[in-house]
Design brief:
Length: 204
C-alpha cells in the first residue's frame, strides 16, 4: 500500500504542476485574440491561423487540465443523494466510478485517439480554411489530456482504498482556502504523517 500511496503522491504532483502552468495557455489565447482584433480594426486584416491557434490553445488548456480539475474535486457532481450517504458509501461509489466509468472511457479514447493522431501526423493534414494550421498539434492534446485524467483517477482510487484500509486521510474532506500548491503540500504532509504513524503502530 505504501508504494501505491507514493505513486499517488507522484501523480498528484504531476497534475498539480500541469494545472499550475496551464493558465499560461489561456493567457496566450487571450493575447492572440486581442492582437487579432486590433490588427483587424486598424489594418483591416485577419487570418484564419490567428483564429485557429486560439482554439488550439483552448483545447490544450481544457484537456490537459482535466486531471488537475479531478485532483481539486472541481468536476460536476450530483450531490442531492450522495451527500445523504455515509462517508464510506460515498467512497465506495467513487471507487466504482473510477474503475468502471472513468478508466474504461479514458482507455477507449486513447485506443481510438492515438491511431488518429498518428494518421494526422503522417498525412500532414492541414485545416481546410485558407491560411489554416496543420492539424496534428491540437490532436496531441487528446491522448495527453486523457492520460493525465486516467492517472489522476487511479491516484484518487488509491487514496480511497487507503482510506477504507485506515492508512490514508479522508479523500472527501473539505479543501482549504490555501493556494493549490499549499493545499497539496499540506495534504501530502498529513498523508506522510499518517503513514508513518501506521507503520509505527503495526505489529512487528
Amino acid at each position: 500500500m505504501q508504494a501505491l500511496l507514493a505513486l499517488s503522491r507522484a501523480i498528484d504532483r504531476l497534475n498539480a504542476f500541469v494545472g499550475r502552468y496551464c493558465i499560461w495557455l489561456i493567457f496566450a489565447a487571450t493575447v492572440i485574440s486581442a492582437a487579432n482584433a486590433v490588427v483587424r480594426k486598424i489594418f483591416n486584416y485577419s487570418s484564419n491561423a490567428f483564429l485557429e491557434v486560439q482554439w488550439y490553445l483552448y483545447a490544450w488548456s481544457f484537456l490537459i487540465a482535466a486531471g488537475y480539475t479531478l485532483l481539486q474535486r472541481e468536476h460536476v457532481r450530483i450531490d442531492v443523494l450522495n451527500s445523504r450517504l455515509s462517508k464510506r458509501t460515498q467512497v465506495w461509489i467513487d471507487i466504482f466510478g473510477f474503475l468502471f466509468f472513468l478508466t474504461p472511457v479514458c482507455i477507449l479514447v486513447l485506443w481510438l485517439g492515438v491511431p488518429m493522431l498518428i494518421s494526422k501526423f503522417q498525412s500532414g493534414e492541414v485545416s481546410g480554411n485558407p491560411g489554416g494550421l496543420i492539424r496534428w498539434p491540437v490532436w496531441v492534446a487528446l491522448p495527453v489530456g486523457f492520460a493525465l485524467l486516467m492517472l489522476q483517477g487511479w491516484s484518487e482510487l488509491i487514496k480511497r482504498i487507503a482510506f477504507l484500509k485506515g492508512v490514508g486521510p479522508d479523500p472527501m474532506g473539505r479543501l482549504t482556502d490555501k493556494s493549490d500548491e499549499e493545499a497539496l503540500i499540506e495534504a501530502l504532509r498529513l498523508q506522510t504523517e499518517q503513514e508513518r504513524q501506521a507503520g509505527t503502530a503495526a505489529p512487528r
